[in-house]
Amino acid sequence: MPTLTVLLFHRIADGLDRPSDIDGRLFLRCLERVRAVAVPVQTLAEAARAPAGTSEDAICLTFDDGWESDATVALPALARMDARATFFITTGHVGTPSFLSWPQVRELAESGMELGSHTCSHPDLTQLAPDELRRELRASREELQERLGRSVDTLSIPHGIYSHRVLAEAVDAGYARVCVSRPGQNPLPLRAGRPVRRNALHRGVGEPDLAHLVRPDRATLLRWQMSYTGRAVLRRVLSDAQYARVRGAATAYLARGRARR
Ligand SMILES: [Zn+2]
Fold this sequence. Notes:
CATH superfamily: Glycoside hydrolase/deacetylase
CATH architecture: Alpha-Beta Barrel
Largest sheet: 7 strands, mixed
Number of domains: 1
Number of strands: 9
Strand content: 5-15%
Radius of gyration: 17 Å
CATH class: Alpha Beta
Number of helices: 9
Distance between the termini: 37 Å
Structural class: alpha/beta
Shape: globular
Bound molecules: zinc ion
Order of helices and strands: EHEHEHEHEHEHEEEHHH
């Protein structure tokens, strides 16, 4: 069965210490890996149009949060390899320091990129009252559609934390596709209502991961899934500040281990 591999990036920046940041060199190495395989690099909307009976694998690159590096680093690099990607915007962060401005969001759209919603304020959606949940999902979509003059049909769940209620509300708000942060491959064609799994690139990623980025083998997927599950458990039991400290320390430890090898 053909599969869709979806990669997840956050901010691309050198010398920063958020665990989800990756430096510019690692980002370019990822793109080289992607370019080396002979499958189309598409937006999620394009991949979703794969016809029944398709036999072709596909790769999508996705970028969460709407960091300024989407326009200053990712866009020029994607243009050089003639690839398209999907960018998820937290509408309430647009125009604030380190994030995209509205003209930059428009520039992405005009360059052939897909723009999706990452909600208004990036909350844990499972913790919201029903009317707040509806507002986060609908107001962000409506603002993007209004400003870009095009339909916005893809959602990325903040922090990757979701529930059946969140998924049902997203479908109700008009989203055709919902991206999560759980690692894995997606069978093509995409099935309606089934969350899209993504493999995240972050500071803890090393050379062995890069080798399996595009077509992860079973052992790599299992390792990524165990790491994801561990992080999800920690996120549930720790406060945001405690979680950030633990994840930062773990990432630094892994980076030191790689430097020694
Ligand atoms: Zn996010």
